[in-house]
Amino acid sequence: MKFGIDLAPVISPDEKSAVDYYEEALRLAVLAEELGYGHVRTVEHYFTYYGGYSPDPVAFLSAVAARTERIKLVTGAVLPVFSHPVQLAGKLAMLDNISKGRLAVGFGRAFLPSEFEAFNVPIDESHERFREGIEACRRLWAEEDVVWNGTFHSFGPVTLLPRPYQQPHPPVLVATARTPESCVAAGEAGFGLMMVPGINSAEQTQHMLSLYRQAWADAGHEPGGENVHMSYNVYIDEDGEEAYRRGRHYDPRIGAKLAHAVADWKTTRSSAYRGYEQLTQAPEGGDPFDEHIRDNKVLVGTPEHIRGQLAAVRDLYGDDLTISFLVSSGDMPVEDSMRAMRLLAEQVVPHLS
């Protein structure tokens, strides 16, 4: 297993100003390199408290690149459905050069109806726009004099500048939330996969991973070359009760912001997003926070307990995992995030790497 940090901002201006958030997030990114983490990752979202402080992950990761030397930079993810491919490929190639080849590009399809409405992009077109955007970027990176006549964009001949630092292009990952077809397409193309296991059952996640790995093998890609990223909220303390108290305070606040962001799925239906209305349904049965701990969807407890949770995750999903720890969210003091990173780096990661 490999490990890094996820700096997706789940936060409102009432909790923390943008200036303060960026300053603290950059401190965490620098600390991540000092502690030996493998990557820093952030997301692209708009308008809502669920990620809205990160409309341009390339801008943030460029600031990280300027302050670090070794740690990898991961877009988790950029959204080609809302960008022209020449513009998107160009600024990603620029970041690849600024960082001297430390970039891995995660592409996402987007899933918030309010974002599609704001960009005046029909949500039913998301699959086609997503696939076209990735392939256009890939060709712009890898080829010269590119002529593109797609469904949504036409251009060329174009030779992109700057050329990517990594040849033929940076590693590509594809984000999927609930769509098995995305896993198959990623495996066939030889791309990595980005998953959020907290929103699916273990059985669903295992099924999606099996589709990805089988598609990878059937396409003839190098055995063992699969690249699977997963992101987990983590609350850690040497005092297990304090870790639980902190998680009990912050995790529902994250859930509330997500619930508000996905509320439009109560009235939105799209053949491109089958089952997404389930994101708006309140969980049945017991306490969702305790159930998430039990099912290893959120990491909570002492370093020893979290080592056990991650070992269970590895047993469920395999050794080829890259784990992103979400250590900063809501109005959590940056000192608590830094302490969590140190505990993870010193008492958890060495036992599982």
Number-wise, the strands total 11
Strand order of the largest sheet: 1-2-3-4-7-8-9-11
Average pLDDT for all residues: 95
Proportion of residues in β-strands = 15-25%
**Fold-level CATH name:** TIM Barrel
**Fourth-tier CATH superfamily name:** Luciferase-like domain
Name the CATH class: Alpha Beta
Number of helices: 11
Q: Major beta sheet, specifics?
A: 8 strands, parallel, barrel
Question: What is the CATH architecture assignment?
Answer: Alpha-Beta Barrel
Show the helix and strand layout:
Elements: E1 2-6, H1 18-34, E2 39-42, H2 57-67, E3 72-78, H3 85-98, E4 103-107, H4 113-119, H5 126-142, E5 146-149, E6 154-158, E7 172-176, H6 180-189, E8 192-195, H7 202-218, E9 228-236, H8 240-261, H9 288-294, E10 299-301, H10 303-317, E11 321-326, H11 334-347
Parallel strand pairs: 1-2, 1-11, 2-3, 3-4, 4-7, 7-8, 8-9, 9-10, 9-11
Antiparallel strand pairs: 5-6
Helix pairs in contact: 1-2, 1-11, 2-3, 3-5, 6-7
InterPro entries: Bact_Lucif_Oxidored, Luciferase-like_dom, Luciferase-like_sf
Protein name: LLM class flavin-dependent oxidoreductase
Domain Luciferase-like: 1-319
